[in-house]
């Protein structure tokens, strides 16, 4: 179904947000195009840092990398989440695999005009590997993980799949 080289940023985000969401996504259920939250995120992304070029690493697509080898990611949320940090870590790991040593990730939050810098360390590399292993474990599961509490599903484009009885 999926192997380690196929794991991208969306997989990482869903791993940290909701394993059920990840499991559904891995099986081709992709209602994101119907979500206002996703459309807002795309708009923020398209209008922020427009002079930078995205980097396509196959399964992983990062926003841009600067001349000092810092990965930059633009986020539409107003505050940092563990998923944001995990995505930055994952992109540094992917770059390392192709021989580019990233110094870390800088996460940009245009709505609040904040940035957060996360150095890429040996521990971060181990966590990135563990994240990939966890995604492969979710992918191999025959049944979906349990759904989260309803309050955690606010704004999720998968809500109808999880909460329609």
The profile of the biggest β sheet is: 4 strands, mixed
SSE ordering: HHHEEEEHEEHH
How much helix, percentage-wise, in residues? 40-55%
The helix tally amounts to 6
Strand fraction: 5-15%
Stated plainly, the CATH topology is called: Lambda Exonuclease, Chain A
The unreliable regions are none
Query: What gap, in angstroms, lies between the N and C termini?
Result: 28 Å
What is the CATH domain class? Alpha Beta
The strand line-up of the biggest sheet is: 3-4-5-6
In total, the number of domains comes to 1
Mean model confidence by pLDDT: 88
- The 3D shape can be described as globular
What structural class results from the helix and strand content?
alpha+beta
Q: What this model shows, in words?
A:
Helix content is 42%, strand content 14%. It has one domain: Lambda Exonuclease, Chain A (Alpha-Beta Complex). The mean pLDDT is 88. The two termini are 28 Å apart. It has 165 residues and is an alpha+beta fold. Helix 1 runs antiparallel to helix 2 and helix 1 packs antiparallel against helix 4. The longest helix is centred in the last third of the chain and has 19 residues. The chain has a four-stranded mixed beta sheet, with helices on one face. Strands 1-2 form a two-stranded antiparallel sheet.
